[in-house]
């Protein structure tokens, strides 16, 4: 199963966008699925603020698992890979900001109502999860 398919499956089961991304990749880096899901649990819906898309946040966690460093001297590779991912995601999806991607601010009652009525959480958000996972697959796998 491709990582993008696994991420979509996790999202459809009810995990948030960030959890779906890290859940699809974390075991490749020795992180138990349960731990990965916990780590990413607060990042959905743009860190609950409609800021950076949770799928992007989850992807950055995955990039950290793959390219991150445990010392302060070698951050360059992870930073470069993160910037590369962000650029690609933005080119494909137009933005990395949740409220821009959705076209509404889900932190407001009106915005959340619109997102629910238009089913953005099960359509647009699913598309962002698949996109983020595919970019990770294309760039780093």
Protein architecture, described:
The chain has 141 residues and is mostly helical. It has one domain (3-140). 69% of the residues lie in helices and 0% in strands. The protein has nine helices and no strands. It has helices at 3-12, 17-25, 33-40, 44-50, 54-67, 76-93, 98-102, 109-117, 124-140. Helix 2 runs parallel beside helix 5 (54-67) and helix 2 (17-25) runs parallel beside helix 9 (124-140). The protein is globular, with a radius of gyration of 14 Å.
Can you describe this structure in just a few lines?
With 141 residues, the protein is mostly helical. It contains 9 helices and no strands.
Query: Helix and strand string, N-terminal first?
Result: HHHHHHHHH
> Roughly how many Å apart are the termini?
13 Å
- Give the radius of gyration: 14 Å
Helix content: 55-70%
List keywords for this structure.
141 residues, mainly alpha, 9 helices
Annotate the secondary structure layout.
Blueprint (H helix, E strand, L loop, with lengths): L2 H10 L4 H9 L7 H8 L3 H7 L3 H14 L8 H18 L4 H5 L6 H9 L6 H17 L1
Helix pairs in contact: 1-2, 1-9, 2-3, 2-5, 2-9, 5-6, 5-9, 6-9
């Amino acid at each position: 199963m491709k990582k993008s398919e696994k991420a979509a499956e996790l999202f459809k089961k009810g995990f948030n966008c960030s959890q779906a991304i890290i859940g699809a990749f974390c075991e490749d880096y020795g992180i138990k699925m349960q731990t990965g899901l916990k780590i990413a649990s607060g990042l959905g819906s743009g860190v609950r603020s409609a800021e950076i898309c949770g799928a992007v946040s989850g992807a950055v966690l995955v990039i950290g698992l793959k390219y991150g460093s445990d010392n302060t001297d070698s951050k360059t590779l992870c930073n470069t890979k993160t910037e590369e991912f962000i650029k690609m995601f933005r080119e494909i999806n137009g933005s990395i900001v949740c409220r821009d991607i959705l076209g509404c601010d889900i932190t407001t009652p009106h915005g959340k109502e619109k997102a629910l009525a238009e089913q953005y959480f099960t359509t647009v958000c699913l598309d962002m999860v698949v996109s983020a996972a595919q970019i990770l697959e294309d760039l780093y796998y």
